[in-house]
């Protein structure tokens, strides 16, 4: 290979920071909208798992709620022939994420598992990632939040408590992924399908959310993604999300 | 206006040095008020915000950018015209530049400083802004060179350095002239600032070469700064921001608001420093013509932006467009059209251009309109992104309004200090436009 070819190859890698060809796991999710009842159990579970602060009534009213997953509600049709549709919306972990190139300090980048990760300690709070995100999946810590006693006792020790001025978003419960990968490494094997579940997937009563490795063709996620009902939200923007939605018919 | 007699060489020196050394109570009153206002309305709220969080501003989840960023773009825009205009007019050898360029360049410098301060105010954790600079550090991390925000930091530092050097080099002979006229601590200050200028042929020759070189260097820098600022927005995929026309749009807007700023500033300088014989109606007339041209260009680009948005046919673009023209912010939008596109058309009449008071009113209105434009670019686009469930409305809070007023006061503060240290009119270049003393005799 000539020098220019190797430079081209490197440049290509740099331009497409997906890394899936290089690393084993490519975590993804399938959300079956036919099964979603809009119960918001996922929202609550996420809140408990990831130490999401409670912004209070005033904060909620001014549109500053910190939610890593939310249920979007849409009315379809005109009364009386009307249908209610729910879409759980969370960080899509796009392979071509618009939020990544804009961060001046690399606080958000693509990691080796195909996850779009946020480094809280590196974030300087320009908020441009949230402005660039077409899914509005990012939440900003407008203030430093505290937990009243005894609520502080229930904080998850595996997850950082974020300070004011820091952007945050869904991590696919990276602390659980790390743990599962560590266990698998100790036992000299790969992470099994279904071994790791984010809090939202675990708590979904109708199993509308399925999580797994998209690189493994036998995983539940890969099989469900083949479903002809499958689509990606705002696919026309070429962000290439890791979440496949199954259409509600 | 009555025609004033042209001053002589000696009068030029007398008049300008007088503005430096003679300070009346009105000056102290103005400086004191500006200082007080900037402390109370800028630094105290900012300190409060640093302690509690940026949540004090009215921003919320879809509108993560608000008036702080609009302030930044506004001040960068205001900074635009001074040095750029001065450099362009120097290269095209327009004689009318000579009386106004010094204060125009100072405006550039101070507006840039205020703009950088606005960036600090905007950030969630401004105490870490240095992470956006490429310096060797123990984390072994570079900043992200793909980020338009990083381009921004680079462009602004380059422009700040370039324009301050340009301002300084152009003022060296004047510092020397003042050095020879004053005593006391001022003598020491100007001795230092004039770098031992003696006015030899060689020195004048080198000054001319350096000055022209810097002027040529400054022009692409100035154009690049505002193009880069526009990329902060245009490189997103947000409908209403994702336009290829944004770079020229921002550059024209910047020169437009900057030129209006110069008119306002010239009016005040002329009035309060009795520089009637230096800043004449000719200057206002010429700047008025420039403003008219820029207002037409600006209106054209605005129509173009709306047209391309509509022609794209994408539902998100059209929704944003509808929202901009007829939504919550529509009164502001039409106000902006009135201030920036319709009222400046009056400049086509020569009487309007040569009447100082109408020029003042029009220039202030243009800058109000341009501020609205900067605010609208952010709010109308971010309020209406792709997912309708997450649409929102942004209104500035008291803290934001106070910080904006405070930043204006801080700018005035800087300027008041500047006029007492640097000759606000270029003495040696004004003399070039006058008749030589012996011919008069």
TrEMBL record, chain A:
Which UniProt keywords are listed?
A: 4Fe-4S, Iron, Iron-sulfur, Metal-binding
> Which InterPro entries does this entry report, sorted A to Z?
4Fe4S_Fe-S-bd, ET_IronSulfur_Cluster-Binding
A Pfam match:
Fer4_11
Q: Output the Gene Ontology terms for molecular function.
A: 4 iron, 4 sulfur cluster binding; metal ion binding
The organism's superkingdom is given as Bacteria
Domain called 4Fe-4S ferredoxin-type: residue spans: 27-57, 113-143
Xref: CDD domains: PsrB (cd10551)
Gene3D superfamilies this protein is in? 3.30.70.20
PANTHER family per the record? Answer: PROTEIN NRFC, PROTEIN NRFC HOMOLOG
Recorded protein name is 4Fe-4S dicluster domain-containing protein
- What does the organism's lineage look like at the top? Bacteria, Pseudomonadati, Pseudomonadota, Gammaproteobacteria, Oceanospirillales
From TrEMBL, chain B:
The answer to keyword Transport applying to this record is: no
> Which residue ranges run through the membrane?
27-48, 68-89, 109-129, 149-171, 208-229, 249-269, 290-311, 331-349, 356-377, 397-419
User: Which Pfam families does the entry mention?
Assistant: NrfD
Keyword entries, A-Z: Cell membrane, Membrane, Transmembrane, Transmembrane helix
**Locations listed in the record:** Cell membrane
The taxonomy runs:
Bacteria, Pseudomonadati, Pseudomonadota, Gammaproteobacteria, Oceanospirillales
Organism, scientific name: Amphritea balenae
What is the protein's membrane topology class?
A: Multi-pass membrane protein
Protein's name according to its UniProt entry: Hydrogenase
* Similarity annotation: Belongs to the NrfD family.
User: What's the main place this protein lives?
Assistant: membrane
Q: Name one GO cellular component term.
A: plasma membrane
